[in-house]
C-alpha cells in the first residue's frame, strides 16, 4: 500500500481526469465564447432588447419596463436582483452611496425574488433600511423576471432608454456599472 501522500496524489489525479475539458478553466483563453447576439432580438444578453415585464412595486403599483424606459428624461434602468442577504446589502449600500446620486436620470430597482408577496417584499425593504432609499423594490413573486434575465443573487442589469441590455453580470464594486451608465445617451 502506498503512502498517504501517494494515495492523495492518485485521488487528486483521478478527480482531475474526470473533469474533461477543464484545462480551459485552469488556463483560460480570455476570449468570449458565447454565441454572438443578433441585434433586434429579445433576451437577457448584452446588445439584445430587454425582455419586457410588469411587476408590482412594494406600494402596490404595477411597473412595466417598456413604460419606464420610454419615459421622457429617463436615461436607463438598473435592475439589481436581491435576496436581502449580507452580500446583497453590501452591494446595495455601495450602489446607494456611490452610484444613485451620480445618475439621477436612471431608475434603480431592487428585484426581490425571494419574499413571495408584495407585503413580504415591503417588510424586507423596510426592515433592511431601504424605505425611501432611492431604490424602488419590485416583487418578483413567481421569479419570472429572474428567469427572463437568467439572473441570480447579485445580478445587475443595465438597460438603456432604447430598451437594449447594456450590462448583465454580477455586481462587484460598482465600477463596471458606473462605466456602463456613464456611456448612456
Overview of the molecule:
- The protein is of the alpha/beta class.
- The chain has a single domain (44-182), classed as Glutaredoxin (3-Layer(aba) Sandwich).
- Helix content is 32%, strand content 19%.
- It is built from seven helices and seven strands; from the N terminus they run ααββαβαβαβαββα.
- A five-stranded mixed sheet has the order 5-4-3-6-7. It has a two-stranded antiparallel sheet with strand order 1-2.
- The longest helix has 14 residues, at 4-17.
- The protein is globular and about 70 Å long.
- The N and C termini lie far apart (69 Å).
- The model has no long low-confidence stretch (mean pLDDT 90).
What's the SSE blueprint?
Blueprint lengths: L3 H14 L5 H4 L27 E3 L5 E3 H5 L6 E7 L3 H13 L7 E7 L5 H10 L8 E4 L4 H5 L6 E6 L4 E6 L4 H8 L3
Parallel strand pairs: 3-4, 4-5
Antiparallel strand pairs: 1-2, 3-6, 6-7
Total count of domains: 1
Strand order of the largest sheet: 5-4-3-6-7
CATH superfamily: Glutaredoxin
Count all strands and give the number: 7
Q: What is the beta-strand fraction? A: 15-25%
Overall 3D form: globular
Would you tell me the structural class of the helices and strands? alpha/beta
**CATH topology title:** Glutaredoxin
Spatial separation of the terminal alpha carbons: 69 Å
- Give the radius of gyration: 20 Å
Q: Please, how many helices?
A: 7
Average pLDDT metric: 90
Pick out the low-confidence regions.
none
How can the largest sheet be summarized?
A: 5 strands, mixed
Compressed to H and E, one letter per element, the order equals HHEEHEHEHEHEEH
CATH architecture call: 3-Layer(aba) Sandwich
Helix content: 25-40%
Question: What would CATH call the class?
Answer: Alpha Beta
